[in-house]
Specification:
single chain; alpha/beta; Rossmann fold; 7 strands; globular; binds S-adenosylmethionine
């Protein structure tokens, strides 16, 4: 099996989490197991890794990858907002480390079927969890102009949110907007030329993905619950990829009396990693310890 996703900030995650032999690790976003396999190697035969993911298609890849190192792991489909219930369900008790690497994997991004990327043609779906009903296509074709504009502003900080929402509503009166290429094309055509440092559809796609997957609420719930499952002295590390998430993590760690912030300054990838992996360019990691 081919593994497309290159794990981000892997050396830094291992260093800041101080993973030792025999530890129990909870990987909230196991994905293709890129971080998970390194955790498994370090915890050895006495340790145990629990890995969850919303997307069952990536779990198959993780299973195959992790099995090459040991059998001391359990993977299953779940949402990290349910972290404390999951631990009770599997009867594990408290864990030594909690890790989350937010967003989507390169595999999901490259698969047109998810509809995450404006560079791949596919249905406007954007659900990581296929059991959720709402898709990006519903938002684009059924929500009011005001609702669309507010989603693009709130979750994408898109300064042309009103302009884009107006055009979407105008076009959908004539035809339904079904695909990623159709939506990206609408945005490209109307986006002011002097504001094209990044692809004009970037913020709209980010906003829709965050909204459809309720990403910010899931993150807040996970950050609130994670200290409940950590042992005293146990650590949590979270890697995020945009400022909305990073702000939530920073504030949650700072204001949580149960935690001590380990890195006052956010951890970012060094030049070697940035050169090797474009996806790492916006990554930020924050780490805290249960006191
Ligand atoms: C950046 S990838 C993780 C990659 C992984 N660390 C690796 O190196 O292979 C993020 C993963 O988190 C999953 N995910 C996103 N939100 C989630 C949630 N609320 N609960 C569980 N998994 C989630 C996505 O499906 C995706 O597979």
């Amino acid at each position: 099996m081919e593994f497309i996703h290159i794990p981000v900030l892997i050396d830094e995650a291992l260093e800041y989490l101080c993973i030792k032999k025999g530890e129990i690790i909870f990987d909230c976003t196991v994905g293709e197991g890129g971080h998970g396999i390194e955790f498994l190697k370090r915890i050895g035969s006495e340790g145990y890794l629990v890995g969850i993911d919303l997307d069952s298609s990536v779990l198959k890849k993780a299973e195959e990858r992790l099995s090459t190192v040991s059998t001391n792991f359990k993977l299953f489909r779940g949402n990290f907002k349910d972290i404390s219930n999951i631990i009770i369900e599997i009867g594990l008790g408290k864990v030594d480390k909690v890790f989350a690497d937010l967003g989507m994997s390169s595999f999901q991004l490259s698969e047109g079927d998810f509809g995450f990327s404006f560079k791949e043609d596919g249905p406007l779906d954007m659900r990581m969890d296929k059991y959720v009903k709402l898709t990006a296509e519903d938002v684009i074709n059924k929500f009011s102009e005001k609702e669309i504009a507010s989603i693009l502003w709130e979750y994408g900080e898109e300064r042309f949110s009103k302009l884009i929402a107006k055009k979407i509503v105008e076009i959908r009166k004539v035809r339904k907007i079904n695909t990623t290429f159709e939506l990206a094309d609408i945005i490209v055509r109307i986006y002011p030329v002097h504001h094209r440092k990044i692809h004009p559809a970037t913020k709209t796609f980010q906003a829709l993905r965050i909204y459809v997957n309720d990403e910010l609420n899931n993150l807040k719930l996970m950050l609130d619950k994670a200290p409940e499952i950590l042992k005293i002295g146990g650590r949590i590390a979270v890697i995020s990829y945009h400022s909305l998430e990073d702000r939530i993590i920073k504030n949650a760690f700072k204001s949580d009396q149960r935690l001590r912030v380990i890195n006052k300054k956010v951890v970012k990838p060094g030049p070697v990693e940035l050169k090797a992996n474009r996806r790492a360019r916006s990554a930020k990691m924050r780490v805290a310890e249960l006191v």
